[in-house]
């Protein structure tokens, strides 16, 4: 073998060795990078089931390692201890700031009331309370029935009207916990309402009979509903209770005495106004 061929073979061998070393180095770095554990952060999670209204203590908390901290999840135990739970938190769930009451507000029912809202208690029985199914988080309509304060000549007997719609049930009974055996039979239902709605409920509870109507929590539609009078039920009339527009009494004589008649035929609703200039009934 001549000198030239030997030189070429030697150079080729050195180049192959260098290439093999570079490939080994790159592959080794990639394998090491894959085997290296990613950086993790410890966040707070529930060590056991935490019921709504419970004041968080150190024994209720544990930590869980995560690669990326979810938005709103607490990291430090002192950020959660002493705050009331606004909803049920199950074992293993992250402790989120939005699911805890503000610091210093304590626990129990009061901690679950959002700012600007009120908890209004309504006395119910098994039937009125939707047979125990009016549990926290459910949505109900409030229906009242009674005799309106009007003169005997205008009275149509007992009337029923929908007072409030799509109202959230805050708690049921004297305990805000769920019954493990199923829906709890209650005597008091606390409804989450505005201050104005609380006044209406307070007045209605003293003057009328209140009944709760359970609705689908996903159905938030507010539907205009006319009241119904007992006289309409027995007479078979479908005309709802509507205010009657009348003229004014000027100088002791009834002028422009008008009557409003609303006729409902299937989905068609028409209104007619009849005027009696002489003021005769």
Description:
A hairpin with a 2-residue loop joins β9 (249-250) and β10 (253-254). Strands 3, 4, 5, 6, 7 and 8 form a 6-stranded antiparallel sheet that branches. Strands 1-2 form a two-stranded antiparallel ribbon. Mean pLDDT is 75; it is low at 243-257 and 277-281. It starts with a helix and ends in a 5-residue tail after the last strand. The longest helix has 33 residues, at 3-35. The chain has 3 domains: 38-112, Alpha-Beta Complex (Type Iii Antifreeze Protein Isoform Hplc 12); 117-229, no CATH class; 242-276, no CATH class. It is an alpha+beta fold. It is 19% helix and 27% strand.
DSSP helix count?
3
In total, the number of strands is 12
**Poorly predicted spans:** 243-257, 277-281
Silhouette = elongated
How many structural domains are formed by the residues? 3
Would you list the SSEs in sequence order as H and E? HEEEEEEHEEHEEEE
Compute the CA-based radius of gyration. Answer: 36 Å
CA-to-CA gap between the ends? 136 Å
The proportion of residues forming helix, as a percent range, comes to 10-25%
Instruction: Report on the biggest sheet.
Output: 6 strands, antiparallel
Structural class label: alpha+beta
Give the integer mean of the pLDDT values. Answer: 75
Roughly what fraction of the amino acids lie in strands?
Answer: 25-35%
